[in-house]
Amino acid sequence: MNIFEIFEFTFMQYAFIAASVVGLTAPLVGVFLVQRRLALLGDGIGHIALTGIGIALLTNQAPIWGALVAACFGAILVEYLRTKSKIAGDTALSIIFYGGIASGVLLTSIGSGSAGSMLSSYLFGSLTTVSSSDLYAVVGLGAAIVITITLLGRQLQAVSIDPDHAHVQGMNVNLISIVLAVLSAVTVTVGMRAVGLLLVSAIMIIPVVSAQQLSKSFFQTAIFASAIGWISAVMGLTFSYYVDVPPGSTIVLTALACFAIISILKTTMMLVTKGKS
Amino acid sequence: MPVTARLLVEAKNLCVERSGASILHDINLEVDHGEVVALLGANGSGKSTLLHALVGLIPISAGSVELCAGHDGQTGIALVPQFAPPVSLIPLTVFELVATGLTTKRSVLGLTRKQRGQIRDAIDQVGLNSKSTEKYSSLSGGQLRRALIARALVADAELLLLDEPLTGLDRESIKTVVELMARLRASGHSMIVVSHELADLENLFTRVIELNNRKVTYDGVPLARHKHEAHHHDYQLIAPDLGLLP
């Protein structure tokens, strides 16, 4: 078996580039979500993005842009409800999330004419559906994520760690929170093709949880998480090709395997160190 | 930092309500540059609420608050909370925690050399040099309080708001934090300090404001408050003189 044969196919080259972008960038956003205890935000936004795909299919637009608009709208709505609504936060959010996925299934089924395979490719990722125009969009959006974090990283970090202190210093905490929500929406859209809307949130969070076990600082965690995210995406995509299953499942299971290995190694090292002392 | 008489905070007829219940009623308060103000009161008297209302963390139901500190779009105010920020889920070093206090823009490549120097200076001022690269979650209560003060210092704040800075600390840590606050006063920083009692901080304050039953019941110099208190309660508070101030 020639391990490089998978690179001979154009669709796999596209899939690897798309997976690499999501593997590298999703944990950079996830590190702020974990710190703000918003680990499930990406999951909810994924549900809403499906409605955007349905609307795009019905109006003959590119699904990725429909997903992006719906995800950004949903992210801002979720942030508003989370901070302003008098309804219990999780109740308000669940209404949005369930409404999003129900509308998405309905509209996508009508728009595509074949509910099953089309839906599955958006929910769990697909190797063969990354088109060249999708790829440009994914790379462009990935670059936008990196640039935004580079420019606003200090504010995002300050608000994630202590929003009250950030407010007193004069930062616009609401605006920064919306920026984080929109970054999550863009990340969901970037990961839509390679990992799928239902599993993209996992690649934002699991590498961060793995990395924090190895790191001594916030900065280190972000870098390690990005590296673990990339390794998970590339290895998961390779498994997906050979096992012939949706890539979302293999990418997330690879990320979980990384988490398990790091946890076991860390526990073992702690026991050894304890034994020596 | 030169000490000049300049208004930093002005609250007029400030009222705060929560779920229809009045928490603070008709509070009038002015704090000038160079003042070190104690905000005293029993549990539930509204002193922390007042501190948070002054900086907009709690909405006011009537009246107005004007903050006059700061320049270049910065508030010039820093909050030192009673509790550390919720335990950081992501590892965070003392250096990184203090860096979140920086209000100047960092370059695209991260902190500039000048900013790193500012952070190191702030950590040095609170005596935590040796802890700079350690996780802040590993600090003791007193060290944590000092790290939060360093975060306020790096912002170059004119006015520091300290919420119960000595609560939960052991004697040694109390002495260290009080000494640090005395140095801040000597260097011209203004402070509003929420506290249950004067006790260890007696000599630090230029002014005491006491809250009781939603209102200001005393506003004046610390010694006069003793007489006021003795007159009303028939006892005299004897505060230890730590000899921190000339």
Description of the molecule:
- The complex is a heterodimer of chains A (277) and B (246).
- Chain A has 277 residues and is mostly helical.
- Chain A has a single domain (3-200), classed as ABC transporter involved in vitamin B12 uptake, BtuC, CATH 1.10.3470.
- Chain A is built from eleven helices and no strands.
- Chain A has helices spanning 10-35, 41-58, 63-84, 89-112, 115-124, 132-161, 163-168, 173-191, 200-214, 218-243, 247-276.
- The radius of gyration of chain A is 19 Å and the shape is globular.
- With 246 residues, chain B is an alpha/beta fold.
- Chain B has a domain at 9-76 and 157-227: Rossmann fold.
- Chain B is 28% helix and 26% strand.
- The model of chain B is unreliable at 233-246 (pLDDT under 50).
- The A-B interface holds A 31, 34-35, 37, 150-151, 154, 157-158, 161-162, 164-170, 208, 212, 215-221 and B 52, 55-57, 70, 73-75, 77-79, 81, 85, 88-93, 96-97, 99-103, 106, 108, 133, 135, 151, 155, 161.
Q: What's a concise summary of this model?
A:
The complex is a heterodimer of chains A (277) and B (246). Chain A has 277 residues and is mainly α.
Task: Please name the defining characteristics of this protein.
heterodimer; A: 277 residues; mainly alpha; ABC transporter involved in vitamin B12 uptake, BtuC; 82% helix; B: alpha/beta; Rossmann fold; 6-stranded mixed sheet; globular
